[in-house]
Amino acid sequence: MALPVINAVPHYTTKLPSTGEEVRFRPFLVKEQKILLLALETRDLKQIVGAINDILKSCMPDLNIRKLATFDMEYLFLQLRGKSVGENIEAEMSCSECKEPNKIKVNVDDVKMEVKPNMGERSVKLNDQYTLTLKYPSYDYVIRASEGIKTETEMLYTLILGSLNTLKTKDEVINLLDETKEELEKFLDSMNTKQFEDIAVFIREIPKLAHAVKFDCKKCNHHNEVKMEGIADFFL
Which class for 170: exposed (0-12), middle (13-18), buried (19 or more C-beta within 10 A)? Predict the structure, then answer.
């Protein structure tokens, strides 16, 4: 005989930081938590992000996960994790003085999205003829495109490529999402320094999860102040 469903699954709502759109979700269940735990054991960021993607798809079926901005995905997963497992996340941090590992607890409700006063422009006027519009690069793109990247300059260039949206002229709007990577690189390389920097501002000021942690080392009693940033700091 079929076994009964022993728990009614509640639903919650939250808002996407990038748009304010309301998102409905359910907590993840044991079968989904198992996927996450197995991925966490590998300590491989790509596998962990893949597991998070799968869980978000299951718990937020009405949302297009692949198009989420990096900070949207991080924020949504943190909210989901809080409603599924509990508000407290246990992390391990090393003392800056003696390097002793210390276990700390972070309350999900205390973690805020770090938004700078000037978020950068979504529209950049390159000259009198061309105006470039930008979008936040998706988490899916960032993970795929960042493999093998070793320097901050390479990462910035890659993120800019992933943020190019449209190029407006007086007569038409060119959808840059339809262009090849080679064409986009050629387009970006043709810019002058001022144009490139105007775009870079948008990338540098992408919001991110951030939380300041203070703790006294259990071994040497040194007072530590550490800033946690991004999904890796909270779950690795």
Answer: exposed
